């Protein structure tokens, strides 16, 4: 079991280490200006010396991202259930769901701040707007793909809409929901940081300040933390997927 | 928001080669904002051919969010406009850019509040509380944090829109004296502005910079450039209308009346006693030294900068005396 | 030729079809699937519905199950119109061509499902389900998940699920078609034994003449689409049918009768 974990984790770690080392050597050799591209060692040093600034910012961004993602999951699934209820409803309302996908968050963020005020609420709203559509789209696809024979089976035994939803449609759609969440997780981080550019707080403000102070190494350090957040959320969804689907879905079988 | 665009532009700047700042024989000049009275002298110089007559084919580029310092350093542009503190910071990070002309002798940045709050100073404001919208990382914010107790303020990013200010009577925001207060008044608000310079932090602003390399290799060109700017500013201060009209064509977001008001507001900051004595755009070692000291105190630079290397006395470069 | 039934008295229901027609309209085309079918099935009878692929026999079966409706004609269960489906779920069971189990439930959970949907108490449902699972010989696998079962085992679970409500009419739509010959014959044997033990009416759709001959008391042969009855043939074979029956000449003879009817499109 330990061997398997190593097999999974070693290759990407090795690639990361090799790339970082290569970058460090190349940047030093070519004497690239630290304003343009800081060496990995400089980024690490900035992350260390500025941890009093970065860690609370990381915590703040994480909090807002999680709340926004949770809202996307809950409201996204509910919206998909509503859209799946009838073709007419889907045709009438699906275009508005697509709106969430295409609206440029950078342009909308200032509006969010006007509506929700400066602070976490606007940031959560931004994270939500950016991440809800994949949940809706994937969940809807899952609900629409339910095996027709199973629908017949439920109809044969006189199952009502609630029983159908809870015992058939939602379990069937679960793998799709998790796929949607995988995508939504990374987007939620982006949404939160863009929200922070305008609404304040978290890693977004650290990035802005570091840019203004021409501390490109700090910019990269903040971006590194943001990437860490995105990766962690992704891993979390994968873990949830493995636990939930382990015994029955092809995507997690053999695991 | 300009910093968001700067992030993207930074990545673009990484991949550019140093090409002496000239493209097709033009001398590129990067602005850090849209055409406004802030650059009045520049556009007047362009309009009257002050550059052309000195053999300088200047071409204006850049805009809000442009990473001017990086663009000058990489050679993508020959000249650029930046804030004085950006120059000191850049030099501290190992970037060889030098200031050659300072538009504003007095720093035009300030904090704008609603006059109805009846505040008489920044100290009053910070004691009263409310929201403060400022660009993250601005040195003068750090200065304010050091001089005053800002714990009662909710500090939020400034998004270059006065809409939050108009909506919230308890909101204070950073301003450029030629810009936001005028906008606010025209939208029916009654703003009151406290200049940062009055609280002891007074860097030059709208400073024209070039790379150390260009300064060493083409001193005559740099001197000519500064001289042309001086002519342009003289002309603009005497009569801003023609250059304003030109800039109004390029910047359709501001109307003629705003141009007029802004030009009037900035006049005393551009032509101070020092400028009258030493020439428009001239700079002094004392001011640069003080700025270096202040930035060091604020922890924004690691070493005390060599003030003399931050700027060039272009009068001396040309070998001529300063203007009377 | 009907020999005495097995232990229990027939609990199955009689099915009557009178002039049943069904037409599908899709993209402007009108396809007649069922072209006027008259059929009477006695309570407890095992009837094979035989016909070429696509002839409409599956549609007919779905109409009887209440999963589809007829455009003309009557479908009567125990003399009452099939539209009065108040307790349909308690009387009728359906086995599909594939097992169609819920992959997130184990075998026990799958077999319990019909009782759950009908609102039966949980403990009682569990016991019934376990008994049904044992009857198809899968007692050891009750906790396994469908992905851990072979095709034949999954089909047996599907059978157990169908029988758990003690239906009085069992409809099967080519249930064993996707399985290999050995598993198929084994399941045929088991199905016949289950029928004999419960007395349920069975309608078994297939396009295999050998399977029809082995399983049924009576075979109904349909024409190609639109489905009409071409032949009704009582199978002249003993009530007790062991695996060795397939090797006997009389079996081949009966299968040949059915095969001939399949090839001859109209009476």
Q: Beta-sheet strand percentage of chain A?
A: under 5%
So, the CATH homologous superfamily of chain A? MetI-like
CATH topology title of chain A: MetI-like fold
SS class of chain B: alpha/beta
> Low-confidence stretches of chain A at least 5 residues in length (pLDDT < 50)?
none
Beta fraction of chain B? 15-25%
Elements of chain B, N to C (H/E): HEEHEHEHEEHEHEHEHEEHHHHHHH
Helical residue percent of chain B? Answer: 40-55%
Q: So what's the CATH class of chain A?
A: Mainly Alpha
Mean pLDDT across residues of chain B: 88
Which structural class matches the secondary elements of chain A? mainly alpha
The most extensive interface between chains reads: A-B, 31 and 35 residues
How would you characterize this protein structure?
- The complex is a heterotrimer of chains A (255), B (324) and C (267).
- With 255 residues, chain A is mainly α.
- Chain A has a single domain (47-252), classed as MetI-like (MetI-like fold).
- Chain A is 84% helix and 0% strand.
- Chain A contains ten helices and no strands.
- In chain A, helix 2 packs across helix 10, helix 3 runs parallel beside helix 6 and helix 3 (51-84) packs across helix 10 (216-245).
- The longest helix of chain A has 39 residues, at 161-199.
- Chain A is globular.
- With 324 residues, chain B is an alpha/beta fold.
- Chain B folds into two domains: 2-106 and 203-318, 3-Layer(aba) Sandwich (D-Maltodextrin-Binding Protein, domain 2); 109-199, Periplasmic binding protein-like II (D-Maltodextrin-Binding Protein, domain 2, 3-Layer(aba) Sandwich).
- Helices cover 44% and strands 18% of the residues of chain B.
- Chain B contains 15 helices and eleven strands.
- Chain B has helices at 2-14, 40-48, 68-74, 84-92, 122-128, 139-147, 163-167, 180-186, 212-217, 219-238, 241-250, 256-270, 273-278, 285-297, 314-318; strands at residues 22-23, 26-31, 58-62, 79-82, 97-104, 109-114, 130-134, 153-157, 171-176, 191-195, 205-211.
- In chain B, strands 1, 2, 3, 4, 5 and 11 form a six-stranded mixed sheet that branches. In chain B, strands 8-7-9-6-10 form a five-stranded mixed sheet.
- Chain C has a six-stranded mixed sheet with strand order 6-7-8-3-9-10, sandwiched between helices. Chain C has a four-stranded antiparallel sheet with strand order 2-1-4-5, with helices on one face.
- In chain C, a hairpin with a 2-residue loop joins strand 4 and strand 5.
- Chain C contains eight helices and ten strands.
- Chain C has 267 residues and is of the alpha/beta class.
- Chain C folds into two domains: 24-82 and 169-267, P-loop containing nucleotide triphosphate hydrolases (Rossmann fold); 103-166, no CATH class.
- Mean pLDDT of chain C is 87; it is low at 1-9.
- Chains in contact: A-B, A-C.
- Chain A binds chain B through residues 33-37, 106, 110, 113-114, 118-119, 194, 196-200, 204-216, 219, and chain B through 1, 3-4, 6-7, 10, 13-14, 69-70, 73-74, 86, 89-90, 93-95, 131, 133, 135-139, 154-157, 159, 161, 163-164, 167, 300.
